[in-house]
């Protein structure tokens, strides 16, 4: 955002947009998506998040950043909510181990992203900097796992 807009007040607005979208999305999901398959909610939200992650790469502009803030902010809490609910459904007697694994996986991603950016450093490859490559990798992983979820990943013995 800083590279696209010099004024920190303007590019700083992406965070309130992100947070507002996150808060509204949880209320929306709780109200209107409660009858949907948690796996499908997770898959759809993750696909939307992939689009939001890729959008600034495809069109580096202020509107793309704002749209990305809405798409990613509006889905990251929903994916978390659906994933944790699905884990509780899959292991109703004691979901703690599965929830811990999911939390550790999330934490590993939070650590790996910045490390990958730092590892790539200031070099540019095919015109992209490290942050762009990390964003592209995240978008591909999100899209791939979304497709995997949609096509039947995480089969459950209980209602999905």
Structure description:
The protein is an all-alpha fold and 160 residues long. The chain is 74% helix and 0% strand. It has helices at residues 8-11, 14-32, 38-58, 62-90, 96-120, 130-150. The radius of gyration is 17 Å and the shape is globular.
Whole-number average pLDDT? Answer: 86
| Oligomeric state of shown chains | single chain
Q: In terms of per-residue confidence, which ranges show pLDDT below 50 for 5 or more consecutive residues? A: 156-160
Task: Please trace the helix and strand order, writing H or E for each element.
Answer: HHHHHH
By secondary-structure content and strand pairing, the structural class works out as mainly alpha
Shape: globular
- Tell me about the biggest sheet? none
Round the Cα radius of gyration to an integer and report it. Answer: 17 Å
How much helical structure, as a percent, in the residues?
over 70%
What is the overall number of helices? 6
Question: Could you list some keywords that capture this structure?
Answer:
about 160 residues, mainly alpha, about 0% strand
């Amino acid at each position: 955002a800083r590279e696209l807009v010099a004024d920190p007040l303007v590019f700083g607005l992406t965070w309130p947009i992100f947070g507002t979208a996150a808060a509204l999305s949880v209320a929306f999901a709780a109200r209107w998506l409660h009858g949907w398959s948690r796996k499908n909610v997770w898959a759809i939200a993750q696909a939307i998040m992939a689009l939001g992650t890729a959008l600034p790469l495809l069109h580096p502009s202020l509107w793309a950043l704002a749209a990305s803030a809405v798409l990613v902010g509006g889905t990251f809490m929903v994916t978390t909510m659906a994933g944790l609910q699905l884990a509780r459904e899959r292991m109703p007697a004691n979901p703690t181990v599965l929830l811990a694994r999911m939390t550790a996986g999330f934490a590993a991603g939070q650590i790996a992203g910045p490390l990958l950016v730092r590892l790539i450093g200031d070099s540019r490859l095919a015109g992209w900097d490290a942050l762009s490559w990390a964003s592209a990798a995240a978008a591909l992983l999100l899209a791939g796992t979304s497709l995997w979820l949609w096509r039947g990943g995480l089969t459950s013995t209980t209602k999905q």
